[in-house]
Amino acid sequence: MNRLPSCDSWNPRAQSVTNDAAFIKQNLLKPSIDSGKRIVLITHSYSGGPGGMAAKGLSITERRAAGLPGGIIGLVFISAFLAKQGQSLISGSGGNIALQNNGQLGVRDPKQWFFHDVPDRYSDFAAAQLKNQSRYSAETPCGAPAWFDTAYNGRRSFARCALDRAIPPVAQDLMVQQSGVQWNVENFHSGHAPFLSQPKRLSDWVVSQVARWDTGNEIVRPESGTSVSSE
Predict the structure, then answer these.
(1) What is the pLDDT of residues 176-202, one digit of tens each?
(2) What DSSP string describes the chain?
(3) Which pTM value belongs to this model?
C-alpha cells in the first residue's frame, strides 16, 4: 500500500503538501502514464490538495501534444479539497481536528466524523487503520491545481456527500462554486466515506464518468486508474 509521506511520519515537521504531491506524481501517476496507460485520478478528502497538484501537466491532451504516451483522462474528487494556489487545507477542517505537540493531527472520535453511516463491521476496521497526519502538510500552501486547466474541461467530476461531518456539504458546495471551473456534481446521501457506505453506487457512478471521458477503443475501468487517499 502506498502511504503519503505526511501520514504517520516519523518527522512530521519536515512534511508539506508539496512533498505529498511529488510522491503521488512520481510513485503513483508517472509509472503508469509513462508506460502508456490512460488513467483516472480519484482523490478523497485531504488528497484532493496534493492530488490536484500532482496531476499538473499529465492530462492525456497535454501528453499527446508533447508526443508522449498515456495520460490522465479525467478527475474524480470524492468530498475532496479543492484548494487553489496559495491556499492551505487546514482552514476547511472544522473543529474535529486535534492538534498534538509533536506536530501531528489526530481526529477525535473518527467513527462519528468519518464513518457514522457505515456498518460497524466496516467502520470499526476502517477507524483502526487511521493514522496521524502531519499538521504541516495541512498548513503549507498548495501549488497550482491541474483541475483548473482547460485540458480537464468536461472531465471533472465531484461526489458531493450530503451527510459528511468531516467536510460538510456547505463547504463542498462552496469549494465547487469558488473553483472557477465547471464540475459534474453527483449527490450522495452519505457521510465522508461513500466507498464504504455505498460502494456499488459510487463505483457505478465512477464507471459512468470514465465511459464519458474515454477517448480510446476500450473503456477504462477504475481498476486501471489511481486512487489516492490519506486515510
Answers:
(1) 999 999 999 999 999 999 999 999 999
(2) ----TTBT-S-GGG--HHHHHHHIIIIIIHHHHHTT-EEEEEEEGGGHHHHHHHTTT-BHHHHHHTT---EEEEEEEES---PPTT--SGGGSTT-EEE-TTSEEEESSHHHHH-TTS-HHHHHHHHHH---EEHHHHHSPP---GGGSGGGTT-EEEEEETT-SSS-HHHHHHHHHHTSS--EEEEES--S-HHHHSHHHHHHHHHHHHHHH--SSSPPPGGGSEEEE--
(3) 0.89
